[in-house]
């Protein structure tokens, strides 16, 4: 089976960290009671509907991935049952610029969200449909020394997350994945 990818950028705020503390999209209506920063356009997950898709047709510069072509010195994986997080140690910092971002962002980790079937799993939706798998590439602003200090700042531009939705294409079988 071949996976097709659809990606967009999302600037993350403190609201995203609520997911890591057990406050999920199930009760996100209560997020505004926790912090004003969790209300309105800064809230995650993002439901992309017809109007949001029209807005996404506005031309934006491409992302610039700096040093993303080097191999890591080490890799650490953690599966907590909610997500699989992968952290890498590199000799050089991986950075993300442009693509609508106003700052330089340093790579921290990537993690996945998945569901129990082929029709759910992603946090974000497109036209009310979820994907079976979503990957988040997490970056923090170069103004900070690490992801923890970026989160603690509670600044709306402290963290940038590139979300990638995966979709199953049953018409293009990959024998290597079927073993």
Structural topology:
Blueprint: E1 2-12, H1 14-20, H2 31-34, E2 47-48, H3 50-55, E3 63-66, E4 74-79, E5 84-89, E6 95-98, E7 105-114, E8 125-126, E9 133-141, H4 147-153, E10 159-169
Could you describe the 3D structure shown?
- By secondary structure, this protein is mainly beta.
- It has a domain at 45-166: Alpha carbonic anhydrase (Carbonic Anhydrase II).
- The protein is 13% helix and 36% strand.
- Strands 1, 3, 4, 5, 6, 7, 9 and 10 form an eight-stranded antiparallel β-sheet that branches. A two-stranded parallel sheet has the order 2-8.
- A hairpin with a 4-residue loop joins strand 4 and strand 5 (84-89).
- The radius of gyration is 17 Å and the shape is globular.
- Residues 1-26 have low confidence and may be disordered.
- The helical percent reads 10-25%
- What overall form do the CA principal axes indicate? globular
Report the CATH architecture of the domain at 45-166. Answer: Roll
State the fourth-level CATH superfamily of the domain at 45-166.
Alpha carbonic anhydrase
Largest sheet composition: 8 strands, antiparallel
Give me the count of strands: 10
Stretches where pLDDT falls below 50 for ≥5 residues?
Answer: 1-26
Can you tag this structure with a few keywords?
36% strand; mainly beta; carbonate dehydratase activity; two-stranded parallel ribbon; 179 residues; Carbonic Anhydrase II; CA_dom_sf; Carbonic_anhydrase_a-class; metal-binding; disordered N terminus; lyase; eight-stranded antiparallel β-sheet
